[in-house]
Amino acid sequence: IGNTVLHILVLQPNKTFACHMYSLILSYDRNKEGPGSLELIPNNEGLSPFKLAGVEGNTVMFQYLMQKRKQNLWSFGPLTTVLYDITEIDSWAEDQSFLELIVSTKKREARQILDLTPVKELVSLKWNMYGRPYFCFLALFYILYMACFTMCCVYRPLKPRTGNRTSSRDNTVYVQKMLQESYVAYEDELRLVGELITVIGAVVILVLEIPDILRVGAAKYFGQTILGGPFHIIVITYACMILVTMVMRLTSTTGEVVPMSFALVLGWCNVMYFARGFQMLGPFTIMIQKMIFGDLMRFCWLMAVVILGFASAFYIIFQTENPENLGQFYNYPMSLFTTFELFLTIIDGPANYDVDLPFMYSVVYFAFAIIATLLMLNLLIAMMGDTHWRVAHEQDELWRAQVVATTVMLERKLPRCLWPRSGICGREFGLGERWYLRIEDRVDPNKHKMMRYTEAFKAQDRDNYDKGSGKLESSGGTLCKKELSVLSLSRSTSRTSSHRGWEILRRNT
C-alpha cells in the first residue's frame, strides 16, 4: 500500500505537497536501506517511483529524490564536492534503463531531465569518454563497408547479349552471367571476397537488430524518431535485400538488379544516421525525418490522386496517336512516369510542333499546370516551412536526446571490456555497493546571501500576519470591520517587513 501511495504522489500536480507526503511515508518505512525498501518496489510496468518521476517529466520530484540520495564529500569555501547516487540512473547494469525510458517517452517535460544534475554530467562523461570515439569508428567502418558493396555491384558479372532483339525499343547489350561463369578469373575472386564481406555484414545487422525489436517492441522501436526508428527500418530492409540478392545469385535467377539497386539506395541513405553524433548535422536529420514522415507522407496521398487522374487522361488522349511522334505517353506506365515528372517540374510540357496535337491535350495540361505547379507545390513548401518553425524550437533538445539514445545503444552492444562502468563504487567511501558520480559544484556566496534575505522577508511577513490574524480573531467586531482591518494590517505589515528587509540589505552592503 505504501509503495502504491508513493507512485500516486509522483503523479500529483501539487509538487510541494507530494514531496512532503513522500518524506512522511518513507519515515515509517522499516526497510529504508534494504532491498525491501518502498522506493525500490516497481509497479506493474516495472517502474520504481524514481523512474516514474523521470518518465512523467516530474522535474520537481526528480530533483527532490536526487537531493535525498546525494552525499556531501567535502566543502572548501565556494567549492563543494558531492557524490550523487546513480544506481538507477546508470544504464550499465539495468535491464530497463532510466535514460532509455526518458528518451523513448513522448513527453517533452521528460527530456528536460537530461539537463539536470547528475544526469547531464553522467551522459557527458559517457559520451565524451567512450560514446563519441566508438560512434565515429562505427561510422567510418560503415562507410568503408558500403564502398566495398558498391564496388561489388559496379563490377558484377555480366556478359554480352547473344539473343535477337524482340522490339525496336529494346537496347539491352549485356545480361547477367550464370553462377558457373561468375567466378572464374582473378578479378572474380577479388569480387567474391567483397561479396562475402557484404553478406556477413548483412547477417550481423540482422543479428544485432532483431533482439532489440523483440525486447522493446516493433511499434516503439520503429516509431520513435529519437531512437532512430526510420533508420532501423532502412537498415533492416537493406540487409534483407542483400540476402535476396545472394539467393538470386546462387540460383542463377535473372533480375538481381532489382534488390541490388534497392540495397544501394537504402545502404547509402543510412549514412545519415551517423550524423546524429555531430552537433552541426544532427538537428538537420531530425528536421528531415519530421518532414518526410509528417508533411511529405500526407502530401503524397494528394499527389498520387492528382497524378493518377491526369496520367489516365493523357494516356486516353494519345491512345490513338502515333507513339513515334510523341512517345512520352505511348503506354500507361510511361504516362504515369511522365506525369510525375511534369508534377515536379522536372521536364517541360512535351510537345511536337511538326505534327498536330489533340485539342484536349492543351486543355488538360493547362488545368494540370494550375493545380500541380501553382497550388500543390506551394502548399508543400508552406507545410515544410511551418514544420521547420515548430521543430527549430526543440531541435537542440531532440539532438541531445538522440545522443543519449546512441550512448545507451552502444553501451548495450559493446562488450563490457570495451566499456567499463562509469562512476565510483560506494565501498571506497563506506557507502555500500551503490555507485556514485563525483561532481564538483561552485557555490556563489552572493546568490546564497540574497536567498537568505528573501527567506528573512518571508519569515517576517509570516510572523506579522500570524500575530495580526490572532488579534483579529480575539476581537468581536463585525465581518466588515474584520475585512477592513485585515487589509490595513496586511498593508502595514508588508510596509514594515519591506522596510526592515531593505535596512538589512543596506547594512550588509
UniProtKB/TrEMBL annotation:
<keyword id="KW-0812">Transmembrane</keyword>
<keyword id="KW-0597">Phosphoprotein</keyword>
<feature type="transmembrane region" description="Helical">
    <location>
        <begin position="231"/>
        <end position="251"/>
    </location>
</feature>
<keyword id="KW-0472">Membrane</keyword>
<feature type="transmembrane region" description="Helical">
    <location>
        <begin position="192"/>
        <end position="210"/>
    </location>
</feature>
<dbReference type="InterPro" id="IPR036770">
    <property type="entry name" value="Ankyrin_rpt-contain_sf"/>
</dbReference>
<protein>
    <submittedName>
        <fullName>TRPV5 protein</fullName>
    </submittedName>
</protein>
<dbReference type="GO" id="GO:0005262">
    <property type="term" value="F:calcium channel activity"/>
</dbReference>
<dbReference type="InterPro" id="IPR008344">
    <property type="entry name" value="TRPV5/TRPV6"/>
</dbReference>
<dbReference type="GO" id="GO:0005886">
    <property type="term" value="C:plasma membrane"/>
</dbReference>
<dbReference type="InterPro" id="IPR005821">
    <property type="entry name" value="Ion_trans_dom"/>
</dbReference>
<feature type="transmembrane region" description="Helical">
    <location>
        <begin position="359"/>
        <end position="381"/>
    </location>
</feature>
<dbReference type="InterPro" id="IPR008346">
    <property type="entry name" value="TRPV5"/>
</dbReference>
<feature type="transmembrane region" description="Helical">
    <location>
        <begin position="257"/>
        <end position="275"/>
    </location>
</feature>
<dbReference type="InterPro" id="IPR024862">
    <property type="entry name" value="TRPV"/>
</dbReference>
<keyword id="KW-0479">Metal-binding</keyword>
<keyword id="KW-1133">Transmembrane helix</keyword>
<keyword id="KW-0040">ANK repeat</keyword>
<dbReference type="GO" id="GO:0098703">
    <property type="term" value="P:calcium ion import across plasma membrane"/>
</dbReference>
<dbReference type="Pfam" id="PF00520">
    <property type="entry name" value="Ion_trans"/>
</dbReference>
<feature type="transmembrane region" description="Helical">
    <location>
        <begin position="296"/>
        <end position="318"/>
    </location>
</feature>
<keyword id="KW-0677">Repeat</keyword>
<feature type="domain" description="Ion transport">
    <location>
        <begin position="134"/>
        <end position="394"/>
    </location>
</feature>
<feature type="transmembrane region" description="Helical">
    <location>
        <begin position="134"/>
        <end position="158"/>
    </location>
</feature>
<dbReference type="GO" id="GO:0046872">
    <property type="term" value="F:metal ion binding"/>
</dbReference>
